[in-house]
Amino acid sequence: MRLLFFGTPEFAVPTLARLLAGNHPVVGVVSQPDRRRGRGRKTTPSPVAAHAMSAGVPLFRPEKVGAQTVADELAATEPDLGVVVAFGQFLPKRIRELPSRGYLINGHASLLPRHRGAAPIAHALLAGDAETGVSVMRVEREMDAGPVALEKRTKIGPDEDCGSLTRRIAELTAEAIDEGLAEIANDRVKWVEQDPSAATFASKIERRDAHLDWSEDASALARRVRAMGPRPGAFSEWNGEPLRILAARAEAGPVGEAPGTVVVIDEQPRIATGEGWLYPLELQRPGGKAMAVSDFQRGRGLQTGTQLGSEACE
Fold this sequence. Notes:
Blueprint: E1 3-7, H1 13-20, E2 26-30, E3 35-37, E4 42-44, H2 47-55, E5 59-60, H3 68-75, E6 81-85, H4 93-96, E7 104-108, E8 116-117, H5 120-126, E9 131-138, E10 148-155, H6 162-185, E11 201-202, H7 218-228, E12 234-238, E13 241-251, E14 262-265, E15 268-272, E16 277-284, E17 291-292, H8 293-298
Parallel strand pairs: 1-2, 1-6, 2-5, 6-7, 8-11
Antiparallel strand pairs: 3-4, 7-9, 9-10, 12-13, 13-16, 14-15, 15-16, 16-17
């Protein structure tokens, strides 16, 4: 089958790489336009676009993929099927039905219908899910609601953060898409409709999602730290500035201090929560480097009696 690939971030690169090494020719890659990225804010291509250029694959970077002129250009590649992984634009009907087989497939980073939406991996961590995975689904107008061809599952590690889990899921997505294509090419694919009553939604992560509310229990706060790590990083206010907590562990037990109060024992700070204690393991000051808590405490570290948190963080 002649494939048209839609993708943008680093997450989608393993799937594109696997497709380029596979049996089905990739006749075009569609990605977001070049954007300002990184500390220097230089205009650079997306990770997917950069990989396509290095591989010499025809590349399309439309501002609006649904424009008729773009549809005409994509149709000229004569694709049989479209593959979507974290593309980042709405795909209208003229694009969804453009391939000769009449549809696109998508590798979505959750076990659908759970966690439809933009940030399924972070929301799986926030929810305390024991496992997650990838669903290969047919792209339809409603977001992540199309029928599913197959899924691949994986356990979530007890200390795994969003960064490490995202890297694993990216590789799993490449495997899932590869298996899905084999089923489609051999006419063995079976589409299973999702149960809309079981759907949950994983909205885009906003700054407020990274704010630590110390009235929550320690286990929920530890999940939030993992879900926000390493970027954007969970944070709380300290001395009028945001202090990022990039790794932490929760401990049950009675708390005799107000939520957000720091208690330092043997140079290890712990923070009172609504129920239990949160032990920060990796911290970062504004403009500073991420540091293990032992290194952080050697400088101007957290002191017993310090109160973290403020409505200013909202």
